[in-house]
Amino acid sequence: MTDHIIGRARELAIIREALDETRAGIGGCHVILGPPGIGKSRILRAAGDYADGRDIAVAAREAFRHDLAAPLVSLAGALLQCSPPTGEFAWLAGPAEADSGNHARIHRLRTSLERYAADNPLLIVLDDAQWLDELSALAVRELVPALASSPVRWLLAGRPGEDGTPGTETLNWLARFGSPITLGVFGETETKELCESVIGASVDKTVEALVPGCGGNPLLIEELLSALRDSGQLVVADGIATVTGEDLPGSFVSIINGRLERLSTDARWLLRATSVLGRPFDLEAAGRLTDRRPTGLFDLVDEVTEAGMLVEDQDGLTFRHDQVRLAVQSGLGAMKARQLHREAAAMAVESGRPTAEIAAHLLRSGPAGTREAVELLRDTAARVAPDSPADAAELMQLALDAMGRHDPERPEMVAATVRLLASAAKVARAQELGEAALRAGLDPPTRAYLHLGLAEACKHAGHNARAAEYAEDGLAGPAASPPTRARLHAIHAHATFYLDDFTTADRAGAAADAIGREHEPGAAVFGLTARSLVAQAQGRLGDSLDHASAATELADRAGGTARHRHPRIWLANALTSLDRFDEAQRELGAARREAERLGTRWAQPLLHYYLSALLTARGRLDDAAAEADAGVTVAEQETAHQLIVPLLGTLIRLAVLRRDLGQARAHIERVAGLIASGITAPPEDVEWPRAMLFVAEGSAPAAVSAAAPIYDTLRDRPTLIVQRPTAAGALVRMALAAGRRDRAAIVVDSAARLAVANPDSRAAAGSAAHAAGLLDQDPQRLAVAVTRFRAAGRSLALASALADLAVLTRRRDEHYEEAMELSAEFGAYSIRARLDAGFGAAAGSGIARTPILPLLTRVEREVALLVADGMTNTQVADRLWKSPHTVDTHLRKIFKKQDIRSRVELAKLVAEERARFPGDT
Hints:
Layout: H1 9-23, E1 28-33, H2 40-53, E2 57-62, H3 73-80, H4 102-117, E3 122-127, H5 134-146, E4 152-158, H6 166-175, E5 181-182, H7 188-199, E6 202-203, H8 205-210, H9 218-230, E7 234-237, E8 240-243, H10 252-261, H11 265-274, H12 283-290, H13 298-306, E9 310-313, E10 316-319, H14 322-329, H15 334-350, H16 355-363, H17 367-384, H18 389-402, H19 410-423, H20 427-440, H21 444-461, H22 464-475, H23 482-498, H24 502-519, H25 521-537, H26 541-558, H27 568-577, H28 581-598, H29 603-617, H30 621-637, H31 641-657, H32 661-676, H33 687-696, H34 700-706, H35 708-713, H36 719-723, H37 726-737, H38 741-757, H39 762-776, H40 779-792, H41 795-809, H42 814-826, H43 829-839, H44 858-868, H45 873-880, H46 884-898, H47 903-916
Parallel strand pairs: 1-4, 1-5, 2-3, 3-4, 6-8
Antiparallel strand pairs: 7-8, 9-10
């Protein structure tokens, strides 16, 4: 670093090493946390200087409290000021395209960053990141992991304690994946060194006795010493500084006031007037607030900058620190402050500043301004809500704070705010605000609308029991409007489905459909998708398809919010259960393109989940694991906790199939934590993965015990067999191994019922034959299962049935050879282990692999070769017809397997393999 920064040697060394790695091609992120004045900004500036000296481009910006409702302004502002200048990010300066949702903008930004970083290492610095606008915060959460393989280094600094802001949540999210750099207060040694650096002399006991009152905060120490020096109370004699006098400043405000008193009257007014702005300003803005011509301010600006009160940066003039600005502002009288804020509001309107900034000034400009601000905040919240619900909720809460407690419009605004908080996954805040409003008393229609918001908040968080209760409370009276009733029924349907109350869920879904078709098509679509899930869970596969098809047709016809429900996701799920895989994949592809176009990011984890299920059925376990892993990442970014459990359940099952039991145990621990937090999930996503792990660990009795909820309800709820036809055989095998033939008989009976109820389903017929063949030790039934699974295109189920047939007949025939071949191709090593155990071979014996990058799967090898050829992850995704998230996951696994950290290292590895084995890659 170019400047010596006292007391931060360890922190600077960490950042220096990180930037050296970035220069070598390795990306990553560091979070710096600490209270105001602790030195975060100084470290960021030093990092920028260090990067610049090593030919690393720097894109830096400070986020501001008023960046709300200005989507992407924080991150775009940094990139547009990239040094050295580049045109790669120029498109960020223009307006967002009318048909471009948030997802599309983030995707385009990712592409720009990948393209730029391919030739230029880049440092992105975001100061005061707790104030990031919602879209910038979302982009950071997505882009940090997505660009980990590129030479892009992120450095974010923020203060703890600003709960609920998108920026704070992002800082906390990033901190969980690494060790944040937490800046502490100075001790005696650092404090003395700082004093001597500021004064330029040694200090005696009078100074050392005074500075502890600053609590070790560097900013307070520096300001105190400057104030004492300005007042003549700091005397240096013979190279030693001494404090004289008794009238010493006792607080930070008094320290700043003492420094102000040494300035001219006009200079003091310049500082007081501009202190209302809260962001960098130019001479024209300062002139309007002080009623002077800009050219007449030159001498005053020199005076305040020489005094260290203002500094000049690339955005204009700004206070040395925001705490200094607030201290200066505290000296304004109420009347002056109101007039200055009104003028600042007018200036903000003229220059197109964010709504939150305009409203903040209006709220401080008097009663008339408050009324104007409330209307402005409410109108802007309505406009930005579809793309930035968290920002909209913040704006509405500002409006609520400004309104009178008894304002007649307040209840309706509270209800709207609760729904926005629900959309933004701010469950705790939504419940706190909503419950307070319910206790205060509301008119019946508003009360029902508020219950809807609370139900949505709890449903999003996975608290299905609470969501069902709120929905029932909202439906209890006749006052709810038809659209509200339709939405309440739809939420109730999905919540009760996950509570295993299928009768209620189907009834509620039907009510949502009946009311919603006339009044709220989106609710009708959502209700129909719940009915599709119920039908599938009960084994009525034709009905499941009919409901999902009806939902899709209605969404296409109605458009608008109905299309945002993305029923094609559930249509694909129904098609998969009927073995119509190509159709399911087309529908999932269409749903993904639609979700990206509309910017409905909540749908992304669900798309990954159902695509993973489809790929598993086809035996493409590597792709399936990558999709599920990407789904977990997106669900965490979106705080969609409800979806994390089924995605982790998928990863557990896949880890067991691939004999990666350590990873399976780690995922099970995460699931247990989520369940303990109040999230509810069906046994197929919790108990069944646990049972699979117990089997793999050789404990069949524990597996049967864990799967008891599945055995007990299988006749009426054959969900597991519908979703995973291999499960029928697995349930029978574990029951027989545990000596529980009664449990095995339940599975055989249930699978037979499912096959009879769905005569067109080859998978159902295969499951029934597989289960019966294992129970009765009948090779002919197992041969029927092989035939049915082959006809259904169920490659994984086929491999499992082939293995069981080979083990039962004890012949190393074509069934054995095909089972071995398929298990090797899929990486389904648990099937190979079953064969080895059945024929007396050593379980887990090796599988022949190609010599090129031998630890990689086929798909990982494809990704590695394309990345080594210079493609970005986005380009690889386009070439392989995969999502960028899936490619990210494959690349992370490649790095882990090969113990490398950058694309440069990967390219070198591939080049070496190509040289050793020409033609093989």
